[in-house]
Amino acid sequence: MKRILLVLLLAVSVLAGVLVFNAWRAQPLATKVAFVPVALDEAAMAQRLSAAIAFATVSATPESPSLDAFHALQARFAADFPRVHAQLAHESINDASLLFRWNGRGECAPLLLAAHQDVVPVEPGTESGWTHPPFAGVIADGYVWGRGAIDDKASLLAILEAVEHLLGEGFVPECPVYLAFGHDEEIGGTHGAKAMAELLHTRGVTPAFVLDEGGALTQGSFAGLDVPLATVGVAEKGYLSVRLSARGEGGHSSMPPRTSAIGRVATAVSALERNRPPAAISDVQRELLRRTAPHLPFAQRLALANLWISAPVVESLLSASPITDATLRTSTAPTMFHAGIKDNVLAQQAEAVVNFRIRPGDSIDGVLAHVRRVIDDAQVEVSRYDDFGTEPTAPAPWDNAAFNSIDTALRRASPEEQIVVAPYVTNGATDARHYAVLTPNLYRFAAFKLQADELATFHGTDERIAVAEHARAVRFYIALLREFGATD
């Protein structure tokens, strides 16, 4: 027995030593990339962004098909960015999307910078909750306020500002550069990014990489991390909305059946919320945690540097917050419920819609099978809510020249001494996925530092972007375009 105890003690000591060594070895990497100040007229850039926000380019739909706001915005672009329009070949796709080509010194693999012109509507009845009117583009308190400030006009204007600036210097990129500005990203991108991607495909264009919106630079979003975290999207979740419907006999509410149509659908929704798809730390997330670990207090570093043994504990901790839980699994979100016409009449039919954001490794068919298995009720019909649905994208590499160029450009544009730059999977859909027909190297990043309260305005009330952060994004694109070359 004594010998067994000694062996166990030795094994525990060795294990503890390995764990501590791994944590000690996870030290911050020194970077030789320095901040490069670029003189810019930040006030003038803010004014141009303000003017763009004032055009209410809400995504056109069959119910509201007008493209007038987009045409007016594009006329403003032509006036505000004369060099871009004079020196770059450009064309309109489906009467509203814009595709520019900037010729390079050679015919190497091009860079494609993407953004979108359209914005989501402001929910009726919430207008009074805005500090400034949502389509006024007010500049106040160091911010540009309005719908689209973050998503995605700040990125779009930053790209145009960077190209206009470099053209003014006589700069010519090493390889060609495409600028692709869709007009329907918020409703799927079918007539914008998808159409542009198909057009470029027919022309044989194979970009070295594509950079669209997606990630951002955040402070305080990761517990214990005191330095900014830049999350570069290397993949994005898929999208699927499922309709759950049931029928009942109806009649007077004074004589209800044991289970009503509403009750069946409500039970189904409740079952889906209780039985979510399983969580798992993906390879992308492991890399994010690996890059973050050296900057954390020792106890957290100990756990993240030893995921081979601590993964279940880390999963549990990440699952405690809705924000981080969504990174671990295919998420389940009931979003709509329709039933009944009067308080004393039994509903003859009930319907709910549940939205799923599908993690890489899962699939649309897998989600549908999960829904049917969990509900297990033949009287609840399960169907796709509409024709829109996308599979998750395969992760792009994060150990290549493309990712490194994004990392380098951000550091050149940022005065912070330390920044953690790491890959992640975006929860929302972006136009980037449409360009998979051209290249697997799809990245998603907007070079703004956003605080938690600013992130909360995304698609919500008081959307705004700091003037200084818009300028950081312009410097980022300038640096990226200066550094860009063939990355194959």
Write a short abstract of this structure.
The chain is α+β, with helices and mostly antiparallel strands and 488 residues long. It has helices spanning 2-25, 42-53, 68-80, 82-87, 149-168, 193-202, 261-274, 283-292, 298-304, 307-319, 322-325, 364-375, 401-413, 452-455, 467-483; strands spanning 89-93, 97-102, 111-116, 139-140, 143-145, 177-182, 209-218, 229-236, 238-247, 251-252, 331-339, 345-346, 349-358, 381-384, 420-426, 442-450, 464-466. Strand 1 (89-93) and strand 2 form a beta hairpin.
Can you characterise this structure?
- Helix 1 packs across helix 9, helix 2 (42-53) crosses helix 5 (149-168) and helix 13 (401-413) crosses helix 15.
- This protein is globular.
- By secondary structure, the protein is of the alpha+beta class.
- Helix content is 37%, strand content 21%.
Topology record:
Blueprint (H helix, E strand, L loop, with lengths): L1 H24 L16 H12 L14 H13 L1 H6 L1 E5 L3 E6 L8 E6 L22 E2 L2 E3 L3 H20 L8 E6 L10 H10 L6 E10 L10 E8 L1 E10 L3 E2 L8 H14 L8 H10 L5 H7 L2 H13 L2 H4 L5 E9 L5 E2 L2 E10 L5 H12 L5 E4 L16 H13 L6 E7 L15 E9 L1 H4 L8 E3 H17 L5
Parallel strand pairs: 3-6, 3-7, 7-16, 8-15
Antiparallel strand pairs: 1-2, 2-6, 4-5, 5-17, 7-8, 9-13, 9-14, 10-12, 11-13
Give start-end ranges of low-pLDDT stretches. none
Q: Helical region count? A: 15
Largest sheet: 8 strands, mixed
Helix content: 25-40%
Characteristic terms for this protein:
488 residues, alpha+beta, eight-stranded mixed beta sheet, four-stranded antiparallel beta sheet, 15 helices, 37% helix
